[in-house]
């Protein structure tokens, strides 16, 4: 028999119950016990729902109130000293690590966040030093295994593996020079042994141990660490399913096949070409092979015929009992269920498969490969065949005008008229900004009133005219506030925008939208990604109306705000039938038209955000050059059609630029803003190392936390920045947009930011 498996499930709840409960706890509206109960209800529903779809291996232990890596740090006592001894409960220490805390005499910043491999999910980075005292504060995997047992469901616990845990972390500030977290592996393994032995004693037959770093090139240097770790863990643990995802194993399979593990999971959605090599490596061993045939990263219905073909190849080589059909990764990155979608057309709904539907898919594929004669399985197979045929027919249609325009792109269209040094002088005269100009990244708080007005418009309770008058008042409020506190380069605040990607998708041809297809980005921040279904084009201006109105209210320069082509692509669910490059260039051409129209309307600075350009980088270095070529070209295509006096900006967050810095330089944006406050401004040394010559705004405070930075804190950051960067290039701005923050903290933080810039002008004349 071929088994079926789901590697992880969305932890948000079908109706965002977890978000609501967590935010209610933060607001003091519910107790810790109430929060625990809300979480328990969501977990039980998830386990029951997956089991009801016929899945053999139901995951547990991967649920989180904020982030699964943060859960792991808390469980293993990897708690930085700044969060210890504050008189907080363990739960409040946990949340302080994730989002910071500034109340009741406690003032601590949040820990650093990074993107989870090449996804839009953010994890909280563990901090290690020689003084890290590993111990098991609680066994979350065991607790949830027992919790599911009590509900009548046997699960397969999920645990982040020891090597990945250390590799994904960073040295703490007090770590000795040259310290590497992986050196702590011998100290860490005894705690893992306790955790796994307890699971085995409780009756867990299998445990899923996630080691996603195995898909990275750097894993090749960790062969000895993996060998020693699993030699220690395997004898005391349940059967270990060593789990990898998001990319191919390549030569790493040669040492993986020698590990004493019972099973290996590989991602055949992202890397179907690795199957033959993996089969050849493990065939002489007893290792069971888990095939990631159902995508954990997109929302398209699985092509059963193609999946079954790959599954049968593995069965022919290994036998049915050594094959598991699974999702390619955790379904964390997909919405919960299609059942909540009532506004998609029947044709559109038939294209898609969300988490619960994907659970049914793995069960069906496994049943077919097991030789099931069940009529329901046969019916599902036939229905899938019809669905895929209809989708292929739709995909065969294309917009000739769009395709021809992409084909006609020239190198000249990618370049500004003059080099930066020339543009800088022209822009300085045109914009007349002071030294250390202050600005924000774009969005201002999306208040309850703004959300209510948008909802009323959607329900037809107010007219478009009434809604637009409301938006105008919100824009004027933001403009007057910026003038009052003394910001230099203003923004309109984006009150009309529901999301930085969805807003543009709704005004472009080629997208469809959902009602409830929420996906977790970080903590309680969820997004509803648009879905690209056909060729993309723009029929009319998207932002000119609101930026022009904002500019009419002030004599100070107004910055137009757009989301870049690569970010729109990466933060949508893209098409699977054409290349990402084609989709990105179609988006770039639409944005190019918008940028040109904004300049014609009198906007003198335009920010084209690309926070996802680093995120989209392939995990294998051999694939980097091709991606970076079309990604950078897409940005340049969108921004290069303007005059020299137009100042182009771009924003990047949570990005490691060290390895791709030449590509960042090639973007040729006049000003870039970057996350710097949470990462100890380590990125700035990279800019110094490469001699970056364009203007730059490293974030002086973290907007993902509700805490207000003191003015001295901002001055200290500016001083550190000026120790590294030329003062003629520095802009002063927050880390990111202010959409998720409240007005009170925004006003206080920006006032301190302006004070910091004033101090810099006085001391660095």
From TrEMBL:
The EC code for this enzyme is: 2.1.1.14
Binding positions for L-methionine per the UniProt entry = 441-443, 494, 609
List the cofactors. Zn(2+)
For the ligand (Zn(2+)), the binding residues are 651, 653, 675, 736
- Give the GO terms filed under biological process for this record: L-methionine biosynthetic process; methylation
| Main EC class the enzyme belongs to | transferase
Q: Where is the active site?
A: 704
**Cobalamin-independent methionine synthase MetE N-terminal domain spans which residues?**
4-311
KW Transferase (keyword) present: yes
Which parts of the sequence belong to the Cobalamin-independent methionine synthase MetE C-terminal/archaeal domain?
Answer: 436-758
InterPro entries membership: Cbl-indep_Met_Synth_N, Cobalamin-indep_Met_synthase, Met_Synth_C/arc, UROD/MetE-like_sf
> What does the entry comment about cofactor binding?
Binds 2 Zn(2+) ions per subunit.
Q: Which Gene Ontology terms cover its molecular function?
A: 5-methyltetrahydropteroyltriglutamate-homocysteine S-methyltransferase activity; zinc ion binding
Q: Which domain of life is it from?
A: Eukaryota
Q: Pathway listed for it?
A: Amino-acid biosynthesis; L-methionine biosynthesis via de novo pathway; L-methionine from L-homocysteine (MetE route): step 1/1
- Residues noted as binding L-homocysteine in the record, renumbered to the chain: 441-443, 609
Keyword 4Fe-4S found: no
Q: Which UniProt keywords apply?
A: Amino-acid biosynthesis, Metal-binding, Methionine biosynthesis, Methyltransferase, Transferase, Zinc
Q: Where does 5-methyltetrahydropteroyltri-L-glutamate bind?
A: 19, 120, 571
Q: What is this protein called?
A: 5-methyltetrahydropteroyltriglutamate--homocysteine S-methyltransferase
Question: Whose protein is this, by species?
Answer: Crucibulum laeve
